[in-house]
Amino acid sequence: MDWKLMGATFCAVFFAEMGDKTQMATLLLSVRSGKPFQVFLAAAIALVAATAVGAAAGKTIVHWLPGPLLERLSASVFILVGVWMWLRS
Fold first, then answer.
1. I need a labelling partner for 70 at 20 to 30 A (CA). Which of 76, 80, 81, 88 fits?
2. Whole-model pTM?
3. Helices 36-61 and 21-33: angle between axes, nearest 10 degrees
4. Structural domain of residue 34, as residue ranges?
5. How far apart are CA 53 and CA 5, in angstroms?
6. Does the structure show a pLDDT above 90 at 62?
7. DSSP string spanning 16-43?
């Protein structure tokens, strides 16, 4: 097992998810329902499912796009979304 990769992935996902819309929706659902454990369990399952889709897509996409190009495309999408959000506000 590659512990360095595990740590880097954990940190990237953990900090990317902090304070995002998913966390706010989970907080709101927990408050509204009064059942934080059920909300936690459902949110955890959803995150695992979404992550599985991302990992499978990454394994598939790498056959058509080389890693460095995929990294540049991903970075460009993030930048474009950021600029779009900034201009909208």
1. 88
2. 0.65
3. 150
4. 3-88
5. 19
6. no
7. HHTTSHHHHHHHHHHHHHS-HHHHHHHH
Instruction: Tally Cβ neighbours within 10 Å of residue 39.
Output: 19
Residue with tokens 């599985």: 52
Q: Which of 15, 18, 40 lies closest to 29 in space, CA to CA?
A: 40
Sign of the C-alpha dihedral, residues 54, 59, 60, 66?
Answer: positive
At 66, list the tokens. 């080389």
Q: Write the single-letter amino acid at 21.
A: K
pLDDT at residue 33 in the model: 97
Supply the pLDDT for residue 20: 80
Domain count, the chain: 1
Distance, in Å, from the CA atom of 47 to the CA atom of 23, rounded to the nearest integer, reads: 11
d(CA 26, CA 23): 5
Q: Which tokens in the block code for residue 7?
A: 């740590």
